[in-house]
Amino acid sequence: MPTVTKAIVRRFIEEIFVRGRKDTVDELVADDFVAHTWPSPSGDPKADLKAAIDRAAAGLSDPEFRIDDLIAEGDQVAARLTTGATQTGEFMGMPATNKRYSIEEIHWFRLRDGKVVEHWHQLDQVGMMKQLGGTPGAGNASKEAEPAGSR
Question: What is the mean pLDDT of the chain?
């Protein structure tokens, strides 16, 4: 099972985070999905994930997500990533800086029946904002660094 769950998470990272494919959200994310890091503003976490993809695509270009570690145990997968992107549009309330950032992130996934049912996310938001020339917490606090193609 760890090989299968790792493959699903690899696909999730590549297709949703890197490529921003909203159709893959419907394939890989369960209808009862819970995003633990950010509350669902709409009450529909899958729709919120798709909206985050759109916001990220409008503000960030050339996203990179390098998997540094991928550890699976039962129905859970932990991923340590090095991520980066260039801020070419408004992002987190900041106008485009055309600067590139590179940070580390941790994602924790729980899967059921081949789909992601829960997700947790930690990132170096202070490091990202310093590299982009912004102030942590500035701008729209409800749109702090987001999952799913946010970089």
Answer: 89
